[in-house]
Structure formats: structure tokens, C-alpha cells
Amino acid sequence: MNPAFHQKRLLSKAALTFLALTTFVLAILPIVNYLRESTKDYDKWFWAGQAVLEDGDLYAPRGDGTFRFMYPPSAAVFFAFPSYFGKLELIVVLALLYSAAWLASMRLSLSLATGGGARDHPLICLIAGVCCFPYAVENALLGQPNLLLLALMLAAYAGLQAQRPWAAGALIALASAIKAFPILAVGYFIYRRHWTAAASTIVFLLLFLVALPSPFRGFARNLEDLGTWTRGMLHYDAEAISQREQRGFSWSNHSLVAVAHRLLRPVNAHRKRDETLFVNIANLNFKTVTAVILAIALGLCLFYIYCMPGAGERTKASDAREYAMLLLLILMFTPLAFTYFFVWLLYPTVVALTLVLAQPAKSKARMRHWVWFWACMTLLSFTVPLPVFRPLQASGSTLLAAVLLFLGIGRHLRNGKGEPRLADDC
């Protein structure tokens, strides 16, 4: 038997075993935590579901003036269905959904970036999976839906490639109805003149936000809920980002907005009010920092547009890189981007690995690409929840990793020709 074939066969088995084990772990962890009486945000989802079922006030302010539930009314309606049967039933449903989303996200990532799956590209599956699995675990433990949102986003991209723009738009709308920030993808649809996908997103978003909750909340009350939620989440000033006074500017928020404020203003980067952590290198006022953020965001958008090929030069490979860069832009631009948000790096990581392994084996080009890739992964490793890493996190190590991935993939998108040919060792 050919040694290279035998090695790839072993890697394929390892990749499939890894996916099976990790999917099982994600499904069982929340249930084990429930039995240990540690339910994290699942408590919040159960409360929101019960509030819908009992006609309660979703956005009644707490003692500090913030909302207990910080998601659209449609998300509460989604949680109401399993909540009707009980808290454990809700946790079981969400745990199974999130574990399936992990499997789907890996499969879609490999399919979009390489045209194959874990069996075809086991090394990519293993490296990307190991690097991003901690983020998936955090999503499962906390109960956060960001892994599900990733699967919906990737399914929408697959829909675009399959010439199903209405389905693509509906999936983006569904993701946005759970958590608002995926709606930024509409900007890409408009720029690329995916008019049907853009229209589909708007139509289905109105259905999810207005039509779906109305039978439960009443039409007028649902509109009032939407207005209250929108005003609260768009809140942005020198003291708070989207209802998060201390945590919004803390080291745990890795968004462009938060990092810029921590570096350019003397804001406390600690999550607790009674402890301090300052990493600023300047002392600018709030308006000036906001102007800097807008300038950087505009620069990143212009770089993205600069890297995009013309309509007649697009290939599946170039589209795969465009999608990866779009996910990174959305991550950087959302005002709140806590650590668990970065499970979205799974797909850009897969794309980055395809670029590495497309270089000739043992060549200087591959070595340079490996240095780039592992530099990004090293920066991400500083998100390990250890106090010694907090100054690095506060200084923007996670955001910098996303920027490096964005720039590296963009460089290939700008200069790349044709489809990538992966070496036999992937």
C-alpha cells in the first residue's frame, strides 16, 4: 500500500473520530451542567420563553437599568416552544441543536473552501477543529447561539453558490432574528448585486420580527417591544456599549469598537467595577475615538472591495475567500464581540489552511504561510481565561488575529488566479 495513501486514510479516520467525539461532547456538556445545577444563559432563555408564554415583560429594566433579555422578541418566541415543556427539555433541544450546528459548520466550511469534506481533507479538519473547538465548548456551556448562527451563515453562502438566493436571504434573516449582528451581510448582497438575496433577507426578517411574535405578543405590543429593544441595543456613549456599561469596554469584548476605546481612552478594561485594568496608549475624547473607529472600519471595507475580483473573474475559490472575509468583518464590526463569538473563525481558519496547503510542500512559500497561520493562532491562544493574559486580551490580541486573517486572505483574493490545488499531504 502506498505510504502516503495509508497516512491519509489514518488521518481521515482520525478526523471523523474527532468530529464524532466533539459533537457528542457538545451535546452532553449542557445536560451534565444542568445536573450539577449550573445552567448559565440557559436560565435566561427559559425565562424569556416563559415570559412569552405568560405574556410577561421581556424588556423590563433591572436594577441597573439594563434588560434581562437582550435579544429580539423573535428570539424569545423561538425559545418559548421548548420552554413550554420545561427547562431540562429546553436545554436538551438547544444542546442537540448546537452540537448539530458544529457538525454542519465543519462540513459546510470544508465544502465551501475545498469542495470536499473531512474524509477528503482530514488535516484541515483536524487543525481547524482543534483550534476552534474551545470556542464551540464555550458556546455550549453558556448556551449562546453563535455556533448555530455560523451554521446558518455558511448555509446561506452555500445557497448563493447553488443559485438559491431566496433561501440564502431567509437563512440570513433567521440568524438576524436570533441575534441582530448577522444582518450586516446584507451590505455584501447589495454590493455584489445579489438583489434577490437582499430582498429575501428583508422580507423574511420582517416576517420573523413582526409577523411571528404578533400572535403571542399582539401586534401593537410586539412593535413596542421591538422599539424598546432597538433603542436599548443601539445605545452607545462614553459609558456603555449596547446596555453593557462595564463589560462593554472590558477585556472580554474583542470588537473593533471596544478595543479602540481601551487603547485610545483611559477606560477601565476590567470586567469588575471594583478592580482596574488600563491599557490605553493615548488619552483621546469619546468623539475622536469614534471618528478613528469609523475611519478604520471604512479602511477595512475599502480593502475588502479592493481585493474582490470583478464579476467576470469570480470563481468558487474566490467566493470562498470573500465569504471568509465577510465573516471576519462582521465579527470586527459588531459592537459586542465576546470570546464565544469567535467560533465564527472556524470557516476563515479552514480557508487559511487551504491557502497554506496550496503551497508546494517543503517550499519557502509554505513556510511563510505557516508562520502567518500560527501567528494568528498564537494570538488567539491568549483568549485562554487566565489573569496573566488579560492585558494582552485587553490590548486587542483576538481582534489582531482576526485582522491578520482578514489581510492574509485578502492578499490571496487579490492576487490569486484560478482554483487552489491542495497538496497531497492535506
The share of residues in helices is 55-70%
* Oligomeric nature of the chains: single chain
Q: Overall 3D geometry?
A: globular
Could you give the order of the helices and strands? HHHHHHHHHHHHHHHHHH
Mean pLDDT: 92
Structural class: mainly alpha
Count of beta strands:
0
Number of helices: 18
Strand content: under 5%
Low-confidence stretches: none
Provide the gyration radius in Å: 22 Å
Care to describe what's here?
- With 426 residues, the protein is mainly α.
- It is 66% helix and 0% strand.
- It has helices at residues 3-35, 42-53, 73-83, 87-114, 122-142, 146-161, 165-178, 185-191, 195-211, 214-217, 219-233, 256-264, 286-307, 316-333, 346-357, 364-381, 390-394, 397-415.
- Helix 4 (87-114) packs antiparallel against helix 5 (122-142) and helix 5 (122-142) runs antiparallel to helix 15.
